[in-house]
Amino acid sequence: xxxxxxxxxxxxxxxxxxxxxxxxxxxxxxxxxxxxxxxxxxxxxxxxxxxxxxxxxxxxxxxxxxxxxxxxxxxxxxxxxxxxxxxxxxxxxxxxxxxxxxxxxxxxxxxxxxxxxxxxxxxxxxxxxxxxxxxxxxxxxxxxxxxxxxxxxxxxxxxxxxxxxxxxxxxxxxxxxxxxxxxxxxxxxxxxxxxxxxxxxxxxxxxxxxxxxxxxxxxxxxxxxxxxxxxxxxxxxxxxxxxxxxxxxxxxxxxxxxxxxxxxxxxxxxxxxxxxxxxxxxxxxxxxxxxxxxxxxxxxxxxxxxxxxxxxx
Amino acid sequence: xxxxxxxxxxxxxxxxxxxxxxxxxxxxxxxxxxxxxxxxxxxxxxxxxxxxxxxxxxxxxxxxxxxxxxxxxxxxxxxxxxxxxxxxxxxxxxxxxxxxxxxxxxxxxxxxxxxxxxxxxxxxxxxxxxxxxxxxxxxxxxxxxxxxxxxxxxxxxxxxxxxxxxxxxxxxxxxxxxxxxxxxxxxxxxxxxxxxxxxxxxxxx
Lengths: 313, 205
What we know:
The complex is a heterodimer. Chain A is mainly α. Helices cover 55% and strands 11% of the residues of chain A. Chain A contains 15 helices and 3 strands. In chain A, helix 9 (195-205) runs parallel beside helix 11 (228-237) and helix 10 runs antiparallel to helix 11. The longest helix of chain A has 20 residues, at 34-53. Chain B is mostly helical. Chain B has a domain at 12-106: Rna Polymerase Sigma Factor, Chain: A, CATH 1.10.1740.10. Chain B contains 9 helices and 2 strands, in the order ααααββααααα. Chain B has a two-stranded antiparallel sheet with strand order 1-2. In chain B, a hairpin with a 2-residue loop joins strand 1 (111-114) and strand 2 (117-120). In chain B, helix 2 runs parallel beside helix 4 (83-105) and helix 4 (83-105) packs across helix 8 (172-179). The radius of gyration of chain B is 18 Å and the shape is globular. The two termini of chain B are 19 Å apart.
């Protein structure tokens, strides 16, 4: 190894990027060459100076970034609003509703259009059968055959009749204030297998939180729904009732136990909108046990706004 | 022999959940899993953005844009590289865009002259400045300008390779993967970066 090659290898040596044999050769050279040893020392000094330049991001900045991100993710309003540029989010079941929000974002009180899902209907009446291209049979169509029989009553010789189970979408329209429509949406808000349907249902109903069954549903969803987006939407619908003791009790439970920091932050905001002295001890307790920096800071800020101490003595 | 830079990138995942399971859960639409995945990497991402861009505002933008891109496109992640590499491709692309725009605007210098004397853009970090010790402040004034000037002389790509190796502790092979180039090209980039800095800074302590 000569000085020229060693000079080039010193940075790699310093960062531990040399193969062991090259590293040995280089070290042997450094032992015998004062000029290269000085270059290696200069590399170490440069590195030490650069180390001192490093800025660790503050905990507050990290918490703020996390909070902003999760708000953008959880609040679809933010996502859709921020970016006409955001493309639909793939075909994930939970998020499949995002690109189709448009029809649902109708003015409050306007007609509700409910797609009730696919209802299996056995269409055995010959008149109901629609013509289809036999050359394009798919496995789904083949699997839906339920019975076969010769055609009677005027059929040509050799003609058969095949009965298929088909699925049919039924659409019901009505006013959101109609109690029957509300009953359907209340039921949809509990569909365990479809968080998107629950979210849409809660979003529609939250404008009718003056109705007891709706408020009961919102309380149930904010406390029980497995999906954080649905819980947030339900919590949003309860904002007008944050002075109600029953609502406050549920929100306090959410703040203490919800797994999502985004939901806990929304609960802090809702609870502190009507902060009273009775909140001081509770918020101090949350500050003690909360492991999310940003939620803790929000609680501490609420306590400071109430002229209360953050800690307990 | 030098060690990897302190605080080398490492996922902070709960031992109960391996990363692949977490990613698959996110791909199925589990937002809580997404939050866990973010938390495994977000400190490293923010540290890279803060130190590379030296601007709290820009770092905040990079953080948001990078993880929203992950959120929107995780369906396309096919496990043909590590998630860390995939994520860092996104992050470094966004950071490189910022650096290139700055080059055009010639806003690279961290310390700028004002009628009241030199103003260090590091003061964009109030919490850091408030807790910094006097010795460090003195060092910032005397040496910081030279260091930032030296770093400002690097191309965005050299700057990125240097940042990833020196501050993030990534291996050059991994850096090559992230930047879509070879390990050899990453080595050359690191060599050029250190040569340029030594030329500007000379020998100092």
